[in-house]
Amino acid sequence: MTKDLRPNIIRAHEKEKGVREIARFLDISPATVSRAIKRFEETGSNKDRERKDIDDFPKRLAACIAANGGCFE
């Protein structure tokens, strides 16, 4: 889903539009609409979630190297 769709989904949801109606109008799946609404209700934001596994990869890689590669087994 593009970042541009999220605000449109939330605006439609706030106007009391149903998940299926929003999905049909934006030509996306109802599951995508539901996830966007759920994320907004949980976080209050349309922004992407932090990708912790990728963001701290250099730190984890350094720990694996220090452990002589033991974490890759």
From TrEMBL:
It is found in: Nucleus. It holds the Pfam family HTH_29. GO terms for cellular component: nucleus. InterPro entries: ArsR-like_HTH, Homeodomain-like_sf, WH-like_DNA-bd_sf. This is Transposase. It comes from Acrobeloides nanus. The lineage of its organism: Eukaryota, Metazoa, Ecdysozoa, Nematoda, Chromadorea.
